[in-house]
Write a structure and sequence with these properties.
The complex is a heterodimer of chains A (517) and B (388). With 517 residues, chain A is of the alpha/beta class. Chain A has 18 helices and 22 strands. In chain B, helix 3 packs parallel to helix 7, helix 3 crosses helix 12 and helix 7 packs across helix 8. Classes of the chains: A alpha/beta (517), B mainly alpha (388).
Chain lengths: 517, 388
């Protein structure tokens, strides 16, 4: 490890775009970054790898000027670099694309790109020229007249990257850019990164997905608990060693390695049953057309598919957030089509919502409150809240789900994404009389350890007899955990691929392009 | 905290108070009054006599009720600007009941009926805005504000129209006001010597304490908060979002309506044009400044209550326009609001949403009554920054 670092340093003295030397940052007693030393070469794509909470984002924020390091030195293109705020960073030629987009959905792409420019009259003509130039050199095309709200996630991200490129930066930081993209969009992003690097710019890519690193990056640095634990040129470093460095001494939990209880085929009624479901979007297009779906007792059914093919609408109808245009949803024969969320919970339906931040939790409330919200009745004593019982139950959940948190009273918003999801999981899986679980993209944005944990818990729920429905864009995860997989394609559910089938991955891939199996 | 840091909320409040007092003195001097006379008049009008103290406390009680109601609705994410109109409706209903009660009815029954009518009328008035909000999505800030003018006009109609609540006209001098409320609807005095303070003061303090406990320690409080913080998530958790929001705003109206009932149930026991004298708007300001802390609601209400009666005496004794006090209040509001921003920028690393809780949270956390309940420990702040 030391050898590679030394080698990297030797190789970059002449072509370093950004060098960090002993960067440290503490938040109170927590050491977020500890003597981080790394070099990003000019014209390269540099990956920063690490699990949630490893300090990746803090490092980026330090470079972008939103966090000021306590110690260490940064050198940008040979000059001392000490940004006090993002404006400083932008002036020095450092741009950042955040994980959560900062675009105004009701404005057009052009208006979004012109926001924040100086001057009274927006320079529309100059913008058109700039957009042409960016499209020509990096293959990044955006439609300036489109309304941002109508764009797909991938297109929005392109707008964000274009926004960063309009400043003509030397160094571009991309924070978890692939978390919400489908495979084709990820390919396009990787190509863009390569084009940027070829143009002499440096790209720093933060991710926890190793597969992307292999394809996108020239070099990688692995962070764990705020320190650099290794890395180097990818040509010299095998991926498996990066994975080991990332996870440390933790045993990666592979859901497939744990034998599932074999369930006898159930000829009884399916637990969760969807019949002839139609959903129309606000713009009048059909999101779901005549969808039929059965999930049996103890069965795990996965829904694969490129985003935007109706799977979000399906899970929203099941959770009660969206009204069905036609069709029925039944749980154990009880019609839940028009039931309120409270009635669904009472019927034993647990929901892990797709958008954790707006539906799954209330960031300002404590972990204990977030856990107790759907069953406040249980914590009522003499008309008041029994906070002692709430805290005790929360402490138990924190221990059982190994949630990393200061305590039950910590606001859930202060936890990392993986730990927030564990709280959501703990709450939903402890639903009284659990009969079915609807998990929408339950592993999105989580690191490898948390992904395995979430999938493991869902399997345990199925083993205890719950009908489990999972939507995910990660086919590998679905194959590892599900019994069978259907594919969402243009508002319909295609096929039913048994997970143990040797050709499952190919079959799913075909179905995703709309070819019936 | 042992030392009083300059950015401590209490220090900030005291500094703001001193600065606005100086502004007031400067204005009074500009109006040609001698500062010593001004101070004398102000002290005389606030603490100078049991009468002044009692009047101030009665004013404070009304402000407390409006502010407590404001806080309840604000928890559910709704801003009730309609205190004034709700006071008007409360007053009208209380008068309608109060004048028709027999004089010899036992006081607990008569007073309860009168005030109950006031609460229901105020709540009903707010319910109009609440219904528009949940059915049509109309901004409650606009509807409650506009309903104020309807409410004020209704009072005029009631006291001008003999077939409604106007007292029988015996001569051309008969004032446009209602009949006196029956004795059984009169608010009893607290019984302090030569002091007009009524049991409204006790009622209001109890109501504020009850609101504090409900907001912080009950499932209702948690539901209101969840709706205010994230209606989508609250709906997923099975909280009846529309009903909670509706009841939150209606409760706010109920508190203001009660204030209106208390107004007509104390001297001179009549409904007259302008009887609400801006308590709805001042109460709104108290609610905004208190930022969810019930301790602060009581403190600010008392301060404002005294300032109002002081201002009246200022005009009588020192010849300084009573509106000087309004200016002083406004300066105070600007300073406290500005200070909230200032205290929240004290620690650059810990900026963000916490600004909302800085002023009230710190102070009220000690009292255990802060319904904001987001009294964050330093450790939490750090993990928030560390998340990757």
């Amino acid at each position: 490890m030391t050898a590679t670092t030394a080698a990297t340093e030797a190789a970059v003295t002449t072509t370093a775009m950004l060098s960090l030397d002993g960067i440290g940052k503490s938040f109170g007693p927590v050491r977020a970054l500890d003597a981080v030393t790394l070099t990003v070469r000019t014209g390269s794509v540099h990956c920063i790898l690490g699990e949630n909470g490893a300090g990746k984002s803090t490092l980026c924020n330090a470079v972008y000027g939103t966090v000021s390091p306590d110690s260490g030195r940064m050198v940008l293109a040979g000059a001392d670099y000490r940004p006090r705020n993002p404006a400083d960073a932008l002036r020095a030629g450092v741009a950042m694309v955040h994980q959560h987009f900062s675009l105004v959905p009701t404005l057009s792409v052009a208006d979004n790109l012109l926001l924040g420019r100086d001057g009274f009259r927006p320079p529309r003509d100059a913008l058109a020229k700039d957009l042409d130039r960016i499209a020509d050199s990096y293959g990044l095309r955006v439609d300036p007249r489109a309304t941002v709200g109508a764009l797909t996630v991938g297109a929005r991200q392109r707008v964000e990257i274009v926004k960063a490129l309009l400043r003509d930066p030397r160094l571009i930081l991309l924070d978890e850019p692939t978390a919400v993209l489908d495979p084709a969009e990820i390919d396009a992003l990787i190509e863009t990164c390569a084009a940027l690097a070829a143009d002499g710019k440096s790209v720093v890519l933060i991710t926890h997905k190793l597969g992307e690193v292999a394809r996108a990056a020239d070099e990688a640095t692995v962070l764990r608990a705020g320190t650099v634990v290794g890395g180097g040129r990818l040509a010299d470093t095998p991926l498996s060693s990066l994975l080991e460095l990332m996870l440390g001494d933790k045993e990666p939990i592979d859901p497939a390695s744990r034998p599932r209880r074999v369930r006898e085929p159930d000829d009884a009624e399916p637990v969760l049953r969807v019949r002839g479901l139609d959903v129309t979007r606000a713009d009048g297009s059909a999101a779901l057309r005549q969808v039929e779906l059965n999930v049996g007792r103890g069965e795990i059914v996965g829904i694969a598919g490129v985003e935007g093919n109706g799977q979000s609408e399906l899970t929203s109808v099941l959770s009660g957030a969206l009204a069905a245009g036609a069709g029925t949803v039944t749980l154990d024969g009880v019609d839940l089509t028009t039931a309120t969320p409270a009635q669904r919970t009472a019927a034993g339906l647990a929901v892990i919502p797709e958008d954790r931040h707006t539906e799954g939790m209330i960031a300002e409330l404590s972990i204990a409150e977030n856990l107790a919200m759907p069953r406040l009745r249980r914590y009522r004593r003499w008309g008041l809240l029994d906070r002692t019982a709430m805290r005790a139950d929360a402490a138990a959940a924190i221990a059982e789900y190994s949630i990393r948190a200061p305590g039950p009273d910590a606001p859930i918003g202060s936890l990392s994404g993986g730990n927030q999801q564990k709280v959501v999981l703990a709450r939903e899986l402890s639903t009284e009389g659990l009969r079915a679980v609807v998990a929408a993209q339950p592993t999105r944005g989580l690191d490898a350890g948390a992904v395995a944990f979430v999938l493991d818990r869902l399997r345990a729920a199925a083993d205890e007899g719950a009908a489990v429905l999972i939507t995910s864009s990660e086919i590998d995860e679905l194959l590892a955990v599900c019994d069978r997989i259907v594919v969402a394609y243009r508002g319909a559910l295609l096929g039913s691929v048994p997970a143990e089938s040797p050709t499952a991955a190919t079959d799913i891939g075909l179905l995703m392009t709309g070819v019936p199996a | 905290m042992t030392t009083l840091h300059i950015r401590h909320p209490l220090a900030v409040a005291l500094l703001a108070l001193a600065a606005s007092a100086l502004t007031g003195l400067a204005l009074a001097a500009a109006a040609g009054a001698d500062p010593a006379t001004v101070v004398d008049a102000l002290v005389e009008g606030t603490l100078g006599s049991p009468f002044a103290v009692g009047t101030s406390l009665n004013n404070a009680a009304l402000l407390m009720l409006v502010a407590a109601g404001f806080t309840v609705a604000y928890r559910a994410g709704l801003v009730n600007v309609g205190g004034e109109g709700q006071i008007c409706l409360g007053g009208i209903a209380a008068t309608a009941v109060g004048v028709s009660l027999p004089d010899d009815l036992p006081l607990p029954i008569g007073l309860t009926l009168t005030l109950l009518a006031a609460v229901l009328a105020g709540a009903g008035w707010a319910a109009v805005a609440a219904w528009l909000k949940i059915r049509r999505g109309t901004s409650e800030i606009i509807t409650t504000l506009l309903l104020n003018f309807v409410g004020l006009a209704l009072v005029v109609l009631m006291v001008q129209e003999p077939s409604l609540l106007r007292q029988p006209m015996t001569s051309s001098e008969t004032l446009p006001q209602s009949e006196r409320l029956a004795d059984s609807a009169h608010l009893p005095l607290l019984g302090l010597p030569r002091n007009p303070a009524t049991i409204a003061v006790v009622l209001a303090v109890l109501a504020v304490l009850a609101v504090g406990i409900v907001l912080r320690h009950s499932t209702v409080g948690l539901r209101l908060r969840s709706v205010g913080l994230s209606a989508t998530a609250a709906a997923r958790f099975g909280v009846p979002v529309d009903r909670t929001a509706f009841l939150g705003l209606a409760a706010a109206g109920g508190f203001s309506g009660l204030a209106g009932g208390l107004l007509v149930a104390s001297t001179p026991f009549v409904l007259a044009e302008g009887f609400s004298s801006g308590f709805g708007f001042s109460g709104l300001v108290v609610g905004l400044l208190a930022r969810g802390s019930m301790t602060a609601v009581i403190g600010v209400s008392v301060l404002f209550g005294f300032l109002v009666s002081g201002g009246i005496n200022l005009q009588l004794a020192a010849g300084v326009p009573a509106s000087t006090v309004t200016v002083v209040q406004s300066v105070l509001i600007i300073l406290i609001a500005g200070a909230a921003w200032w205290t929240s920028t004290a620690k650059p690393a810990n900026r963000s949403a916490r600004a909302d809780h800085q002023l009230a949270g710190d102070e009220a956390g000690d009292e255990g009554l802060d319904s904001g309940a987001v009294v964050r420990k330093p450790a939490d702040d750090e993990t928030e920054e560390v998340r990757a």
